[in-house]
Design a protein that fits this description.
Elements (H helix, E strand, L loop, with lengths): L19 H13 L7 H13 L4 H10 L4 H17 L1
Length: 88
């Protein structure tokens, strides 16, 4: 049993700590269903943002995910990535 205290006073939302590594990890979570559900639109979005933040390996994974998506799903993912960039 965990018996320590977690200090969340310095925790930041993902958008404030969003470097390429964090965004890449989110892509991995959604592409593999690590948290229970595979969401290719979300995975594509996060890999796209990770690539924009310098994670070159995200480009290949984004391409691989896109091969499993419809054109409409890709457009949604790209729109969501642009919206995220506008807000952050």
């Amino acid at each position: 049993m965990f018996q320590s205290h977690i200090d969340t006073s310095t925790a930041m939302p993902v958008e404030h700590a969003a470097n390429g590594d964090v965004l890449f990890d989110l892509g991995m979570i959604f592409s593999t269903g690590r948290d229970g559900i595979v969401d290719l639109v979300a995975a594509h979005k996060w890999f796209n943002l990770a690539a924009l933040k310098g994670r070159a390996d995200a480009i290949a994974l984004r391409r691989e995910i896109a091969e499993q998506m419809t054109d409409v799903e890709i457009a949604i993912a790209q729109r969501e990535a642009r919206a995220w960039m506008t807000l952050h």
